[in-house]
Amino acid sequence: MPSKAKTALTKKELDEYRKKLTVRRNELVHKLSEFRSESKQVETDIAQDLADKAESSYTKEFLLSMSDAERSELLHIDAALKRLDKREYGHCMMCQKEISKKRLTYLPWAPLCIECEEKAETDVV
Ligand SMILES: [Zn+2]
Prior knowledge:
This protein has 125 residues and is an all-alpha fold. The chain is 62% helix and 0% strand. The chain is globular. It starts with 10 loop residues before the first helix and ends with a helix. The structure holds zinc ion.
């Protein structure tokens, strides 16, 4: 990654995206623990465990119990939170251009700008 691009978003905006990402992440984790847990304790442990870790170090079992869409969203959210910490958030991972705010509002975890995403989709068979 050659880029040292700093995000052009204000701290307030970044905080808002972080909040959105965190809320969505909690939803996913919560939904999963509802689906699986037999006791309240398990749910709390999983949620706490995930909350404690900025790194995505989920157990295989945990990830396998999610649908593909949920799993990929959760991992995207984690990656986005990591980018927030490194102040790289809001820039396309491929072309380093700024991702539009409109897109980030709709998809706060989006790793790519719309052009690159379309390109990536056509590349995938
Ligand atoms: Zn791009």
